[in-house]
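Lecture 7 notes: from sequence to structure.
We start with the chain below.
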Amino acid sequence: MFSDEPTMDLHKDDEIIALLAERWPRCFMLAEDRRLPLKVGIFHDLKAALGGKVSPDQLSRALGTYCSAPDYQRRLKDGAARIDLDGQRAGTVTPSEAMWARAGRAERRDKYQRKHAPAVKRSSLADLRAAGARQKATGG
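Predicted structure tokens for the same chain:
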């Protein structure tokens, strides 16, 4: 389809996602809150349609970035429609896929909460000595 075009030197996932959104605007959205579940196996459709203009590794990484967006993950609900390159319905999200997406969101939320939890104050040597002195004074 694009075989006479030179190979593209795209290094950033966002650049590849922008290319996909330009070529397939009914399927790929730049705005994360508008992204819909993609057809299972869309990687192979893209690889064939791009004809080697984007390396498989770059394409895989960009799709991973696209599909890991929180809004995309929230749309992976049991029975939700998946879309193909033309924006047409191409399958549905299965219960196990929806469960996997929920588990991933919960894991990311827990990781975020652990990372942003208030730091536990560690006792200094002076604090430990004072506690020991109080304990000794009370006969404990």
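Points to note: The CA atoms of residues 113 and 119 lie 12 Å apart. Confidence is low (pLDDT under 50) at residues 1-7.
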